[in-house]
Specification:
Shape: globular
Mean pLDDT: 97
Number of helices: 14
Distance between the termini: 65 Å
Radius of gyration: 23 Å
Low-confidence stretches: none
Strand content: 15-25%
Strand order of the largest sheet: 15-16-17-14-13-19-20
Helix content: 25-40%
Largest sheet: 7 strands, mixed
Structural class: alpha/beta
């Protein structure tokens, strides 16, 4: 069976297909998934354009019912969906199942937003005139998502888009189509009218320009690399579409000399190597006060050695494989660059397991400086570096010395130090005594600098991107 695209309510095959290969076992084919053509992507945009007014005209209560029904199915099938996700992307089964549940929770939240869309009723400065300020859907939204969170990131884009009356054309990452296909299938069967949600799978170079450059597309929400994000922005803004970008990160985690070192090690281990380090919020720069540097490194190294790297679906696995051979090569290349620039490497070895897969032990790079390549560019793998600093002043300076600004964190028992770091950090999200990764679904998500562009995602702030404000003046005659 070849899994098809969904265009205007019909499951349609494209001109070609791609096998979805498990990174845990290269002989394991998760499924065959069609690729859409540029013409099919254009048909999907046309279908969304035609369907959007009717969807927006439905009462919010009806949109709530459909999205809530989808949420219930996602939650009831979380273990099944988690197994599919772990198999195709490589994060551990526990992480994958938690991600599936998070997708259900996101749809639950935004189902409620469909009936929570308040406005303002204001008196004018002119006698006898009243003012109504409300929100309306932006129109047709292209949603383009990455491979590292193949069900959660689509959920946090698609759910608010649909809740607020928009129609969606969705392109998941070519590397991980299975989770996206099942999510769309659930939504379609929950009762979405034809054309309101369209799925076009395939390569960005084949259909990306249509999804971003078509003048019928009113908004584009993209998560991925900084370089591709810039191309998306230019293409969409050329015809006046609004743009939301979530891109890279080089997130600092500061460990001060008064930190609870055991807690800091747990936070660094999770932040740096959870999800195989393949998340934009990963703790990739560990900035450690000199007084506790050696103790922290010794304990973290010991904790890394206890990680079990293996098949994502095995019960004893605590870190899965790297997602692809290309990503594995990139991880190895950055480790070699770091060593060539003077870093000392701990781990980072290629591993053999009972099945052929993309296995690599977690890598820690010691005695690095913030101007080293490893601390300037995003690796997106199980690779973390350690930077030694003297005190809080230097830690804040180093933490902020980056083009990125997604998230940052600090471990300290000083309320004064924590408060100062929270105020002076130039990241969009700040964690105190927590890993830099791990965010809630009901609060804003986003950063500064090269990490993000446009309004925040998630929570109530999602409304800012997926709606436009209308101000109406009314005078009785």
């Amino acid at each position: 069976m070849t899994h098809a695209n969904l265009i205007n309510g019909e499951w349609l095959l494209g001109p070609g297909s791609t096998p979805n290969i498990s990174p845990s076992d290269l002989d394991d084919v998760v499924g065959e998934f069609t690729r859409a053509s540029a013409a099919q992507a254009s048909e999907a945009v046309a279908a969304a354009t035609a369907a959007q007014p009717g969807w927006a005209a439905l009462p919010g209560s009806r949109r709530f019912e459909i999205l809530d029904a989808a949420a219930n199915e996602i939650l009831s099938r979380a273990e099944e969906l988690g197994d599919i996700l772990a198999r195709e992307e490589g994060k551990t089964l526990a992480e994958a199942t938690a991600e599936a549940r998070r997708a259900g929770q996101i749809f639950k939240f935004h189902a409620g937003e469909a009936v929570r869309n308040p406005g303002d009723f204001l008196p004018s400065v002119r006698p006898g005139v009243e003012v109504l300020v409300g929100r309306e859907p932006v129109g047709v939204v292209s949603v383009i998502t990455p491979w590292n969170f193949p069900i959660a990131i689509p959920a946090w884009k698609i759910a608010p888009a649909l809740a607020h009356g928009n129609a969606v054309v969705f392109k998941p990452a070519d590397l991980v189509p299975a989770s996206a296909w099942h999510l769309v299938d659930i939504l379609a069967r929950a009762g979405l009218p034809a054309g309101v949600l369209n799925l076009v799978m395939g390569r960005g170079r084949d259909i990306g320009d249509t999804l971003t450059g078509d003048t019928r597309v009113n908004a584009v929400s993209f998560t991925g690399s900084t370089s591709i994000g810039e191309r998306v922005r230019m293409s969409a803004q050329a015809h006046g579409a609004r743009v939301q970008l979530e891109m890279g990160g080089k997130n600092p985690l500061v460990i001060l000399d008064d930190a609870d070192i055991d807690a800091a090690v747990v936070g660094a281990l999770d932040g740096s190597f959870g999800s195989t380090g393949q998340r934009c919020t990963a703790s990739s720069r560990l900035i450690v006060a000199d007084a506790v540097h050696d103790d922290f490194v010794e304990r973290l190294t010991a904790a890394m050695a206890r990680l079990v790297v293996g098949d994502a679906r095995h019960a004893d696995t605590t870190m899965g494989p790297v997602v692809s051979d290309e990503q594995l090569s990139q991880d190895q290349r950055y480790v070699k660059i770091a060593v060539s620039e003077g870093a000392t490497r701990v781990g980072g070895d290629l591993l053999e397991r009972s099945t052929k897969g993309h296995y690599m032990s977690p890598a820690l790079l010691l005695e690095t400086r913030n101007d080293h390549t490893i601390n300037r560019e995003e690796v997106f793998g199980p690779v973390a570096s350690v930077i030694r600093v003297a005190d809080l002043d230097e830690a804040i300076s180093v933490a902020n010395d980056t083009e990125f600004g997604l998230t940052s964190g600090i471990f300290t028992q000083s309320l004064t130090a924590a408060t100062r770091f929270r105020r002076e950090s130039t990241a969009g999200m700040v964690m105190v005594n927590l890993a830099t990764a791990g965010v809630d679904h009901h609060v804003p998500f986003g950063g500064r600098g090269s990490s993000s562009f446009g309004p925040r995602e998630q929570g109530r702030d999602a409304r800012d991107f997926y709606t436009v404000t209308k101000t109406s003046y009314i005078r009785e005659i």
